[in-house]
Amino acid sequence: xxxxxxxxxxxxxxxxxxxxxxxxxxxxxxxxxxxxxxxxxxxxxxxxxxxxxxxxxxxxxxxxxxxxxxxxxxxxxxxxxxxxxxxxxxxxxxxxxxxxxxxxxxxxxxxxxxxxxxxxxxxxxxxxxxxxxxxxxxxxxxxxxxxxxxxxxx
Length: 154
Prior knowledge:
By secondary structure, the chain is of the alpha+beta class. The chain has one domain (8-152): Pyruvoyl-Dependent Histidine Decarboxylase, Chain B. 19% of the residues lie in helices and 46% in strands. It has helices spanning 21-32, 105-122; strands spanning 8-17, 38-41, 45-46, 51-52, 63-73, 79-89, 94-102, 127-138, 143-152. The strands form 2 sheets. The chain has a 5-stranded mixed β-sheet. It has a 4-stranded antiparallel β-sheet with strand order 3-7-6-8, with helices on one face. Strand 6 and strand 7 form a beta hairpin. The model has no long low-confidence stretch (mean pLDDT 96).
């Protein structure tokens, strides 16, 4: 089997400025510590028994399954934010939600928590904990904020 069940998850967030949207995104990834990964975008299920772990060292260029969101801003003084939330299930799988908006990280965190709670309830799952990573940024010229959950195989 090519894919294995992820055993650990890491939630990170970062912000940056750049000359273009893509350069700002790259700077946000650098700030989050994940710029040298190749993401495989996945949807939002936290495997049963997966542990939440701090960022780990990795080999640049590896393929990394990830749930992520990003937002770019172009208006000087505009506040942008992104957040991810991991709903860890009680003796079950859980869910991951992502959210980005023009506004504060505090507000993005509140919204992503409600999204996780709704998704867990919709599946009839009990929540052991909700882990959130968020970041906000005040745009200078071209800014970006990113939030991501990485799926580690072990």
